[in-house]
Amino acid sequence: MADETGGGTSTLDRELQELLEREQVDEGDHDRFAHYVRKEKIVESAVTGKPVIALCGKVWVPGRDPSKFPVCPTCKEIYESLAE
Question: In this predicted structure, what is the pLDDT of residue 28?
Fold first, then answer.
């Protein structure tokens, strides 16, 4: 069994859980934009139902086809700055 006090994904999972307990999952503009999220997090969310966090900070449970929406301008800006 992994050490829950150590680093790695258990720390990230715990931090996400604490965030979700403090704040309600946002139902806002994810309906209007497709957000950038690490691919493995999308897969994990599909399996576990856990919310994901986009580059822009948006927290939600994906459930719609992102190809039907324009890309979030904040996510795009952050992504492009990472590629430089």
Answer: 54
Measured distance CA(22)–CA(69) in Å, rounded: 29
Euclidean distance between the first and the last CA atom of the chain, given in angstroms as a whole number: 39
Residue type (1 letter), 29: D
Q: Is residue 32 exposed (0-12), middle (13-18) or buried (19+ Cβ within 10 Å)?
A: exposed
Helix (H, G, I), strand (E, B) or coil at 34: strand
d(CA 1, CA 51): 24
Reported pTM: 0.61
- The model's pLDDT over 7-28, given as tens digits with 9 standing for 90+, comes to 566 676 776 666 655 554 445 5
